Amino acid sequence: MAEVASPDLASTAALAADATSLAFPDPVLLAAAANSASSPAAYPGFAAAKPTVPEAWGAEPESPGSPFPPPPAAWTVPQPRLSWPLSPVPVVTKYFDAPETPYGAGHRGVDLAAVPGQEVLAADAGVVVFAGLVAGRPVISVDHDGGLRTTYEPVSPEVAAGDQVFRGQVLGTVLAGHPSCAVAACLHWGVRRGEEYVDPLSLTGEVGEYRLKPWGAGP
């Protein structure tokens, strides 16, 4: 009877390791194989494709040497309809209070804390339509696109009627003496759209002061 050779333990262990690697492949080796297969060297004549961003994102063309396009441009903040007539942004000492009738009581603008001699700036580009005295108070009025008119008082003018001004241009300087001003000087700033007075703060992106008025009699 022929003698059967006993199996070599080292060979048996190697066979078992090969079987295990086939049943449970090493993820590290799989990843390396995938990378090598997708490289240009693995497929001569073909370049590896670069990841792209959908055109709907509005991405700009790819920059040289970068596999990714630049990110979409940041959103821009829209400019308020009007800018502040004082810089820095002043404290509001008295808020807008719309009159109930065209000639009724109210506060047709806002009062802004200032100092005597502080520069007054045009809230938007426009044309100066008045620079003079109204009831003894020095006033400047500027017409803007969209039917807006801004007024500034009391102001010592550095412009004259008919002058074209740009947004932020110096119109004059604040004078002391505005009625009911609790600080050294106040600038009264008013805005009209046609014949209607509107709250200037609503056009700067700020929130004005709101008051609830009692309901009138009747339905």
UniProtKB/TrEMBL annotation:
<protein>
    <submittedName>
        <fullName>M23 family metallopeptidase</fullName>
        <ecNumber>3.4.-.-</ecNumber>
    </submittedName>
</protein>
<dbReference type="InterPro" id="IPR050570">
    <property type="entry name" value="Cell_wall_metabolism_enzyme"/>
</dbReference>
<dbReference type="Pfam" id="PF01551">
    <property type="entry name" value="Peptidase_M23"/>
</dbReference>
<keyword id="KW-0732">Signal</keyword>
<keyword id="KW-0378">Hydrolase</keyword>
<feature type="domain" description="M23ase beta-sheet core">
    <location>
        <begin position="106"/>
        <end position="200"/>
    </location>
</feature>
<dbReference type="InterPro" id="IPR016047">
    <property type="entry name" value="M23ase_b-sheet_dom"/>
</dbReference>
<dbReference type="GO" id="GO:0016787">
    <property type="term" value="F:hydrolase activity"/>
</dbReference>
<dbReference type="InterPro" id="IPR011055">
    <property type="entry name" value="Dup_hybrid_motif"/>
</dbReference>
